[in-house]
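I am writing to request your help with a piece of structural work I have in hand. I set the record out below, with my sincere thanks for your time.
___
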Amino acid sequence: MTQIMSVALAGMLLVFFTVSKFIQSNTIIRSEPTAKNNNGHNLQMQSSKISVPEPRSGRQSKNNELMQPEPQPDSNQSLNQTQKQNSFHFIISSDCTSYQRWETLTQLHSAQSVQQCGRFTWIVSGCLDDEDEHAGKGKGGAHSDVLTHSSLLQEVEKHFPRVTISNEEVAFHIGRDVSLAMDNSHLKESDASRDCHSIHPHVHFTPDFSDMSKYPGPFSDGKKRRSFVNRQNKTMYGNFGNIYKFNNKPNGLHHWAVDFLRKEGTDGGEAVVLVDPDFLFLNKFEFPAGNDMVAPGKPAAAKYGLGGQFLDFNLTRICERAPLSQSDSAQNKPCPFQTISNSDVHKYYSAGAPYIIHIEDVLAFSQRWVELVPPTYDEYPLLYAEMFAYSMAAADLNLKHNLIQGLFTGCMTSWPHTHGVEEHEALEISAKNYANLFENPVSGASFDPESGGAVSCFLPPLSPPPFLHYCQRYLFATPYTKDAIEDRVVHFFAKRRVDHDILDCNRKVVLEPFVEDKSTKVPHGSERNWHTLAVCATVRAINFAKSKAGCPIKTD
């Protein structure tokens, strides 16, 4: 009997010990984050007044190599290696116009066409209230319409019926299901993150941050004109005045980050990929071989050629208006971006979209970016002010970027280089095949509803980069010959020429390349082929998006 009781007692002690260890290992303690960068600054800004959970241990991969996805993602089994190590969360930041609406919807469809894995959030800034709908006619970029929350969502739902929104107040105001707005954690383990075959976008609305008169400074009253003297001693004047719409990007990102971290925290270990509306997926987004995955304190971005131009700005004046802290200001302590070298800028900070930032860094970084745009814009009132402010914010927080080449093409970078005879021939044939559709013009010839959109333009083994950034004009001439021919037709694509309601089912005719005066100069050689394929990709991507909305499309 004594032996039996001893065994029973031992068993009870074993159970108690096991349960105690289980409870201990699964207890999450929420606290104010204390992680600091090498400059000693908190990476989670306390000014945002939210508490996010400390990252759990065991989330980090044991190796630094980003595994490639399986080539055939036809099964819905477990997450592939890329998702396990860096689950991508794509963030598209736009204004609330019919112009950037068609751009963003086209981008989302292009992501679906390449079966891009990850989550997709669309940050939309500056929508009108429903009662002000008519006030926005023709007031957006490229004479587009500024939309209401409801009108934008109605169009999105035609393309992606499972769209959700995150703003409780907006959802209530427009009569949407508030339960979907209050908590988007249902997306974390749903098909939105696991299924690579379909896109379920999440929309986050923000106010409009483009009015620079709201930020204290010498030009806020609009009486003085901002100017910049470049390295050639030429005075440059900005055309934006007190309306700088690119200020929506840092502010929109921060507005979303505060909301997202309040609801979900940083446990997911996501890599946030920030892109502009005028990006198309040509291929799955993955890091090229040999590049480390993103980690806290280790962001990445595409390498741009902007370089250290901002080092010529009055950095002291910028820092005085946006000190890292009040104590730094009181001590006249310089900001780190004032002392970095041109070499370090080119090595770590000459960055552009796609930006890839670990979720743990997004809040602090976006806050610093927000602070630096207004004084930077006053010093440099031109297009790239927010990009230079991005570089300075990264330098201030010692977020040295892994600058990666080959993430995109089409704008602010060189065209891709082909490798080997077969790939070069595929480039030639791909471009010629598309151009030949216009030798004897037939309406609708450039669109095949079963083509798969932009990806159909590239014949194997030609493999384009993940993104096309179509921020410029692309053109080619037919007959498609190297010789100059007087009787020719010049075909081109320019995003500002696209009908803003192109994806509306009432516009039944497909988009064809625009036609220009035959005297227009066109590219030659390999550049000509890439221009042709850029036209092909943009036109087919738009038509593909239109077809996926269930619109009946005419080709005559």
User: Anything to note?
Assistant: Residues 2-25 form the longest helix (24 residues). The longest strand covers residues 88-95.
